[in-house]
Structure formats: structure tokens, C-alpha cells
User: What shape does this take?
Amino acid sequence: MESTLQKPAFVAAKTAPKATTIAYWIVTALFCLQMGFTAYAQLRLPQVAQAFTHLGFPDYFRVELSWAKFLGVVLMLAPVPARLKEWAYAGFAITLVSALLAHLAVGDGPEAWGWAAATGVLWGLSYFLWRRL
Assistant: This one.
């Protein structure tokens, strides 16, 4: 006698469409490149250090934030438990919103806060697609 179930529970595992997976990795790679570059720039470029001073942040915060970004990029790209990825996404969200608010608070124009806003769009797309996987 044949089962009336269309797909048994153990076979009906949820899989993401291939296009979603490809889009996720493209957007996430772009996001991680952007965050990795900003972390590197914060550590090595004097004009970025001056921008942190302009925003009113102490120098040690720039270094801590850079290493946190590097760690977040590793967590985003590595096969780690979902909870760790979720924390990385949360940390990046806080970082991007804080950067946007800091620039707006000192009266910077779009040329200063535009990168944070654009990177936030990449963050949103990456997170949305990750939740669909």
C-alpha cells in the first residue's frame, strides 16, 4: 500500500533555491570585503584615524572596532553555528547604525555617512537572504 503523503517528513527537508544561495554569497562577499577594507583602513590609514578623532572617539576604540570587524567577517564566511552568525549580524548592525548616527551628530554630509548607509543596504540584503537559506 502506498503512502498518501506527498513528501515524507524526512525527505521534505527545506532547501533554498540555487539563485538565493548564489545571491546570498555574492552580497555577503561584497559586504565582507567592504567591512574588511574598513577594518584595515581603520588600522593603517592616518586619515581614517583622523576621522575617528573628528567623530569624538578615542584611539583605542578604533583599534577594538577594527579587530571586532575582522572577527565578524570570519564568522560571516566560516561554517559556524547559526547563533554565532546571528551575533555577527547584530554586531555589524550596531556598528553601521552607530557610524551613521555619529556622522549625523557632528553634521557630516552624505560624502561622510554615505558609505555607512550603502554598507547597511548590503548588510540588509545579506541578512534577508541568509534567513531564506
Notes: Residues 18-132 form one domain. The mean pLDDT is 92. The longest helix spans residues 18-44.
